[in-house]
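Subject: for your reference before the review

Hello V.,

The reviewers asked for a structural picture of the protein, and I figured it would be easier to keep everything in one thread rather than splitting it across files. Below is the amino acid sequence we used in the manuscript, unchanged from the supplementary table.
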Amino acid sequence: MKPLDPRLLRAARAVRTHVAVTAACGVALTGLILTQAWLVAHVIGGATDGQGLDQLGPLVAAVAGVAIGRAVLAYGAEAAALRSAARAKSQLRRRIVAHVTDRPGRGSATAGEVATLTTRGLDALDDYLARYLPQLVLAALVPIAVLVVVASADWISAVVIAVTLPLIPLFMALVGMHTQARTRKQWTLLQRLGGHFLDVVEGLPTLALFRRAKAEAALVRRVTDDHRDATMGTLKIAFLSAFVLELLATLAVALVAVEVGFRLLYGHMDLTTALLVLILAPEAYLPLREVGARFHASMEGIAAAESAFAILEAPRAAVPGTAPTTRRGTVDLQIDDVTYTHAGRDTPVLDGLSLAVAPGRSVLLTGASGAGKSTLLSLLLRFAEPQAGTIRADGVRLRELDADAWRARVAWVPQHPHLFDGTVADNIALGAPDAGSEEIAAAVAAAGLTDVVAALPDGLDTRVGERGARLSAGQRQRVALARAFLRDPDLVLLDEPTAHLDPDNAALVRAATARLLLGRTGIIAAHDTGWGEITDSTVVLAGGRVSPPTGGNGTPPALVSGIHGHSHECHSQGVVS
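And here is what came back from the structure prediction:
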């Protein structure tokens, strides 16, 4: 495994800065280590030779200054490293989120695994960037510098150090090859645990309904046990490898001390040189021992980085367009021979779909479950791109338009709109963050929420709870419609807006939607036949294509087209005008 993945340098600008600062600090720290050893050796050697405090005073002061300098430099380097790690994690998180939202593509990772990676997972880069990489720089600089200085003072000691020094990285490599597989397994189990737990929590009501909650709890328990066993196994190896490295370093320093001691005893070496060698010998092994100690902690960071790059390098949707688009009050939609197949499936959900919706007209899109209604809305929202065919808005291919500018013209009301744990006004203002209180009040009135807001204890300032738990399903749906009114869209898309609502609430939602659709292009995907009363036409999807449409009040297809002057393509392409 590479000690530094070059993709990190390319992906996170903070890592490049961090590596440069770490190298500079490593060079400075190496110089201070050598200086301190030389000063300490000469202070002790001078004291044994009978030199007084007036001669040794400056050297003692210099030793104290170097020691303080080492402490300050080490503290500053670690603080800078932690800041760099925080910036690098932030940059990676932003890139991953942008990757899976702007142009969806996450490889084989599930939504839960992506969530685990971007939260707990990337935190593992702290040890890797802030502690492992600086020690790696010191391990490359300090032993070589120590060998050069020791060789200039005593070549025999330098030979002993040079022979024993490679044993530590050799054993580190042997241990690392075994640890790598263990750490990968531990990280995989953590991702699986996080992803599965998220899926279980989201589907808990369904699991409880079908009495499968205990079975899923047992599965979570089993995955947790596997992760605990893998973690303990990795820690066991870490402790054993640390013992081996410490033993090797201790024996190597002991060899140097023994041969220096005998030569000092027989007068073949002066005390100052012996002290210099004995002080520097442990410093030659210390950075390698520290790298070994940090290695296991850094492995999780390396595994997290690899998982991040597996997502970032996964194939993504087509490059988004940059063509500008402006509000026009309505949209002319042309969907020509569109085909779309979901990942992992062989049968296309949309198979040569052709449909036209004239400006200012509304369509009820119906059909059996799985007919492709929601998929078509997803394509119109640019959450996905068709594999074949084209979608045009006002004559321009949708994929050529700037995605953000296009979505600014669209209001989307899903079956289960998400409400955040804020006030009613905050949740409505998501449709237009810059809107004022008067505009929000107008949207509330248009969505039929006035009576609901009046009954709330704090009116628009009432907190709705997580996912709007303090509101009923119908009230949550009307809050979503208020967002749409506030957005003042050109195109309105609704996906099963009255599913699971009682008849009274469904009627209120349909009445508010009728006001929203006035003068706007709209597509409503629903099974509820009541929508046919407020839409201009009904289009039935079957087999991924459009069946011959009928008018909202049962008007024959030819009459619908004849009324609006588009009779030639109605049967062949499903034109609604």
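For the response letter, the relevant points are probably these. The longest strand covers residues 333-340. The longest helix spans residues 213-265.

Happy to draft the paragraph if you're swamped.

O.
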